[in-house]
Every structure is written in structure tokens, then in C-alpha cells.
Amino acid sequence: MAPALDQNSMFTLPTFRLECGTTLRSVNVAYKTWGTLNSERDNVMVICHPFTGSADVDKWWAPLFGCEKAFDPTRFFIFCANVLGSPFGTTSPLSIDPSTGRPYGPDFPPTTIRDDVRLHKLVLGHLGVSSIAVAIGGSMGGMTVLEWQLCFPGFVRRAIPMATCAKQSAWCIAWGEVKRQIISSDAAFKGGYYTRDCPPTQGLAAARMAGLLTYRSSDSYEERFGRRIQDTQSSLTENPAIPGEDLEHQPPFYAVQSYLRAKGASFCENFDANCYLHIIRKMDTHDITRGRLPSDKNIDDAAALTAVLATLPSRPLVISIDSDVLCPAKEQKLLADGIPEAQLVVISSMAGHDGFLVESKRINTAVVKYLESK
Amino acid sequence: MAPALDQNSMFTLPTFRLECGTTLRSVNVAYKTWGTLNSERDNVMVICHPFTGSADVDKWWAPLFGCEKAFDPTRFFIFCANVLGSPFGTTSPLSIDPSTGRPYGPDFPPTTIRDDVRLHKLVLGHLGVSSIAVAIGGSMGGMTVLEWQLCFPGFVRRAIPMATCAKQSAWCIAWGEVKRQIISSDAAFKGGYYTRDCPPTQGLAAARMAGLLTYRSSDSYEERFGRRIQDTQSSLTENPAIPGEDLEHQPPFYAVQSYLRAKGASFCENFDANCYLHIIRKMDTHDITRGRLPSDKNIDDAAALTAVLATLPSRPLVISIDSDVLCPAKEQKLLADGIPEAQLVVISSMAGHDGFLVESKRINTAVVKYLESK
């Protein structure tokens, strides 16, 4: 019998061979479950977390949790596992490399989303799961949903990919490169060989700020901040100043600057720069067609994508946010056009890419309706 | 008589008092003119450059230059002057502060777009200009066009603001803050007190890369780069590696990464970090309503904007690019809705904000047509 409500657990494997060819030793997977596995062991909902998320879905996606809501532990055995390279418990650049006795740091081998689903499937096996009823996730979580279905045909019955794509776009690779450049220009970064005492916080914060903007839209910022000036006294006490900056005698300090600085600083308290760069690389490798067509088949990229999408289980629910400028709605339309009998729900919102988290009421309604349908 | 074709000139003033209250001494203005001033001294076209532009309009906006084109030196006496704080000839953080004998660096006083037009008007006076037939510019250049008309009522007959706004938005202030954070996290920045021998090139390059992305659209990147991998050998020779990075043994190096690194590096050869940060601050101050309404008038921001827009000369040509994510089309619609009898041309293009430069053929057609109309 599987664990009961709200379990925070760690699964450990002696070895795990990655797609890149490297074998990791003493691999941990931090995961969390809610609800009870039924006797058929198939009432499983797998929630896949986005870039900076963790297994604590009840924290970062709380509004969807609860009885008769999308994530209903009285109905599903809900599972979420942290991905490789993330700082929230699963083996990552912060973990000790058994061969050196020191943290991997920048020498942590590259991992892929396929590595994550293969690893997480071993945890589900350990829990006695026979199949997945539904896999759901947004952004990187949506990429993971697609890979669950493609890596294990027949194992996942329904899928809800949101604000995501079939392959990481040039645009997203480009933003990843910008973040890489930002972090590596921080003197404290030292090519990734920084110490815990002196991490590249300013670079990581700046990269996070750039990320935050790409996750939203100009409209949402205008509505929230406009040209509002931050009270200088509260700026001085609440906001980290740039070294050498004199907030008191500078030109106006806008509320939106204050917001970004606070967000950047709090992010650095919980995240790690090498982990951040690692996951960017992981997302860069995302391409559901990679290695899935015989190399002697001389077909172009579009035909390859059509062929792979056609192999996915029919009738997923694909969700878009119309103001998403990171994974624009057309990328989800491509998914819905290619997967047999897909249902596409486009949510009109100024929340941008983050809409899959922000528009929780409408997301919940769409998911509940989909889960009730046959 | 004004100078003849293609003049590259410098105008010097003993003092110039800025909006912030500081008086600059020994102020230079780098400017360029093309064509001949007519006997009425009123056939003047003022071109206002964007953020990283210069007076060399014939270089950065070449396709619009020529007989029977938008910028026709046989018809107009064309003038473009470099803004305060820009590294291309006008007084800036790179200039020597007469009071110290050293470059101003980060101590260069803040300037506004209103300072620029007041300063450039002195140059026009020196050239004998009696009025401006048309002022044209995109992005920051478009802000400058609006300020020309508002600072000198009756002096500018026609206006062509493109891809611009009535006030710098929260979104643009936020991107400015991200760039500020990026540059200041570069160890070489030293609060702006870096030397010419050791400038913060990696931070400036990373900020430029972020900027480049905001100037384009995901579609344009997808079409140009997709997931194309850069040949490793050419990457090694053509691209600046991040310190500590081993391009030969990294995961795939994408063409879009190579492109961004090359663009970032070449930008640093011509631009200066303090100038970059200075102009961001200048744009942050852009708000055509600032100080233009009696403070005892208790009206809200929207009403203030409506009131100021209504004072602008009628019948400007406002140009939008529909994929602009930095100054979205709705911001130009606001201008066109508020300025009497404004004509709005929305150019459909995947080029994003940079569309005012990239879509030169369609921009040229729209401008020529407007200039021919009465």
C-alpha cells in the first residue's frame, strides 16, 4: 500500500545512467504524494513542476489543490517529483559527488527531461503504481508531460500540457543564453566554482529578473506598477542597492524596480546558480523528435514533428495563455493540431506565460471539466 | 547659408543648464546634415536617433536615404544630432569634466529628452533654421519627436513618431532595471568607476543581448535560427567563450547563442557602459505629461495624457509594428487616438520593435506617401 496523505519522501538509487552516457551514483529523488493508491494502482495523477518549482505542489500551485478541485487527493493518488539538477532535494550540482567528496558544482553532468521521467518512473514503480491516469504540468512541466507519454507508450492515459512546446524554441534558447551570460559575468561565479559562502547572487538575481519579465506581459506590469515612484525611505530599507549606488540622490526609484530587486534577492535565498544554468541546458535539449525517427528517413523538421505528435495518445487537454510571449499560443496550437483529437483551451489573460499559475480559477475549471469527461 | 551635402560637424557651447539643475560646461553636440537649407530656411527634416544610434543616419537607416526616398536631401535640409550621454560625440560620461580634468563616468548628471531637444534647437539656430518641416524617429527617437513639438509649440509642422510611447512604461522601466543589474554585477563595473583599459564588457554585452531580444519577436528568431547547431570549430574561433567554459565538450552550442555572443561582443567595441546606463535613465524620465499641467488641477493620469496629446499639432503620422513587444501597438494607438487627426499605420511584421528599422521598404512607402500629402 502506498503512503497516505501528504508524504514528503526521498527515494535513493545506487546508480542511474543518464542520456549523456554518464552514470550518476547515489541518486536521490525528492518527491511528495497526496491521497491513496487504489487497488488497481492506477488512480495516479503526476504533476510535473516548472523550471524553478519543487515537489511542493501544494505550495506553488495551492489554489488547484483540494476536494473537488483539479488536484483532488480523495480521487487521485497525486505524485510530484523534483527534477535532476534542481536544488530542491533531487541530485543536483549541490549534491556531493561520491568520486570526489565535494559538490558537483559546474561538473554535474547534463541531464534531459527524458532522464527525469525515466528516473521518476522508477519511483512510481517503487510505490507500486501500474499506470498514470493523468499527467499535468505547465512550461517545463508541460514538456515533461509530453515526454512521459513518449518515453512510456501506453503508461499515461491522459495528459494536460500547458504553456509549453514540442521543442525548445530559438527564442527560449536565446533567453537561456542571456541568463548564462548574466550569471557568468558576476565575478563571484568563477566559472561555477564558487563557494556556498560567496555565491554569485547579483548575477543570479539579475537573471531571475529577466526571467520574471519574460514570464509576464507589458499589460500586467502597466496595470500593477505604471510609473509609480517608490518612497525613497522604504526603498532604502527594503531594497538591496547596487554596490556604489546612492538611492537617496539618484533619479526617481520606480516601484517596479523595487519589486524586481526584492524578487531577485528572495530568489537567491532559495536557488543556486549552477542548478539554474543546469536546468536551462536541460530545457534547451527538449525536442520531442530527437532520436525518435529512423535517421535514414529523409524528412524535414515539420514532417518529423507531425509524425511524432501523431504517436501521442489521443484526446489530451492543451492549455494556452494568449499573452504568453515565452511559449506563444501558436506553439500549443501546433501540439493540438498534431495530437489526435486534442482539445485546445486558450485562456485570455494579460498574465503572460505565468498565466498557467496566475489564472488558477480558470485553469482549475478547465482541468476539472476535462477530468470529468470520458 | 547652411552647409552642403553630408556634413559631419561639432557644435560647442560654453554652458548648458540641464533640467536637473546642473549646468554642464564646454558642451559638445555631434551632428550631421545633408542637403541645403532653402531661402525660407524651413525645409528642415529632423531625424531623431534611437537608444544606441548616432548622428550617422545614413549608416543605420541607409535604406530610407536618397532622391525620392523618405530622407531626400534634394528636397530637405536633413539634420540629426547625437543625444547627451551617448558615446558618439555629444557630451557624455566619456567626456572630460572641466572641474576635475577626468571623464565624468558615473557622475555625469542625469539628462532628459527635453534637454536634448533644447540643446539641439540651439544647433538649429546656429545653422539659421527658422522652423522644422518634419521631425521623424523611432523608439527613443519617437519620444524625441513628441518632445520637439511640445517644447517648441509652432516650431515643428509635421511629425512621424514610430514604435514609441507617450510615457516610458513600467515594462520598459523594468527592462532598464534588469540591464542596470546585469551591468553592475560585472566585477569590472566598480560602480561605474572602471577604466578605459578594463571596461565591464561581459555585463554590457549581456545587457545588450537582453535588449536585442526585446527588440525582436519569437517568430523572427524561430525563422532565422530554429534549433540549428553551430559548427563547434567555427564557434571556437568566432565566439567569445564564457570564462571557464569549454565549448568543445559542452552540450550543443546553438546558432542563436553564437549570434548573440557575436552581437554582444561587437556592441562593446562601440558603446560604453556608463553611457548605456545614462540613456536608460533618460528614457525612464520620458513622460509627456510631466510638469505640463498645473499642479492644482486634480485630474487623473489618463485625463492628463488626453489633455497634453490634444495640444500637439494635428495630423502626425504614427507608425506601429504589430509584433512589437517592447512598445506594443496599443501605445501608439493611444497617441493616434489623442493627437488631433492623427494617421495611424500599423505594419504587420514579425520583426518586433526593430521593425521600424527592418521593414525599411514599407516604412519608406508610408513616410513618402505622408510627406506627399498636404
UniProtKB/TrEMBL annotation, chains A, B:
Domain of life from the UniProt record: Eukaryota
Entry annotation: catalytic residues: S139, D324, H353
UniProt xrefs under InterPro entries: AB_hydrolase_1, AB_hydrolase_fold, HAT_MetX-like
Keyword Transferase applies: yes
MF terms (GO), sorted A to Z: homoserine O-acetyltransferase activity
Keyword field contains Membrane: no
Keywords: Transferase
Domain AB hydrolase-1 stretches: 43-359
One BP term from GO: homoserine metabolic process
Family, similarity comment: Belongs to the AB hydrolase superfamily. MetX family.
Record-given protein name: Homoserine O-acetyltransferase
